[in-house]
Design brief:
The protein is an alpha+beta fold. The chain has 2 domains: 143 residues, Jelly Rolls, CATH 2.60.120; 73 residues, Winged helix-like DNA-binding domain superfamily/Winged helix DNA-binding domain (Arc Repressor Mutant, subunit A). Helices cover 40% and strands 24% of the residues. The chain has 8 helices and 11 strands. Strand 10 and strand 11 form a beta hairpin. The chain starts with a strand and ends in a 9-residue tail after the last helix. It binds adenosine-3',5'-cyclic-monophosphate.
Length: 233
Amino acid sequence: MDRWRAVPNDPLRGVALFAGLDLRSRRRLAASAESRVYREAQVLFREGDPGDVLFVLRHGAVAVYRSGPAGDRAVLTLVRAPNVLGEISLLDGAPRSASVEAIAPTEALVLPRTAFLDLVHTDRRLMDEVFRAMGAMARRLTEQKADHIFLDLPGRVAKTLVRLLASVEDEHDPVGLSQGRVAELVGGSRQSVNQVIRTFAHRGWLRTEGRSIVLTDLAALRRRAGLPEHPES
Ligand SMILES: Nc1ncnc2c1ncn2[C@@H]1O[C@@H]2COP(=O)(O)O[C@H]2[C@H]1O
């Protein structure tokens, strides 16, 4: 069962989608929201469900995945707080495009579609941010498609690790990216992905701590992923 919590003063602060909104609009939108708490491995929603709310992740992280006919699954991405989730159904009115499961204890604010869309229609700044977010997602999907064609497995593993872990400042990140999860994300067999991770560890590019991976040479991983050594270059 979800536990429900009171919404604090300015809970949408720090979420990129709402960065352009003033405090009053953020608070007004948040007033229509409810807070839900999920334990690790709990499903927030499934592919095909009606999409009538927007999720704003405040703490924790989730995996976005599609299930195959044999019950296997492909993880499309991991999303960490603070971030939004479920915006595709909200914008096109169609059912959920993918399933979402908590991969750590997670807290989300749930905003009704009507309250969100009313504000999108009246506030240019929010509309601009929605366009920006959709553009960023389209770019990411294009890049992932190109990576599947042009990068070898170690390159894809390196890029996935850089994309998901480079911005994590806390060495003891509670989300933890296990080797199995990396395999689900890059679309390789678990065995071959584990071999790549062992090689990277041997070279001193990362270390494994329990179930988690800690990056120790970001520049080397960026090079292996075909990225410039430093993000700003
Ligand atoms: N390829 C993807 N990359 C990042 N996020 C995604 C991807 N596919 C689906 N999502 C997210 O997962 C959500 C599933 O429900 P929605 O389709 O409403 O909105 C979707 C997005 O928020």
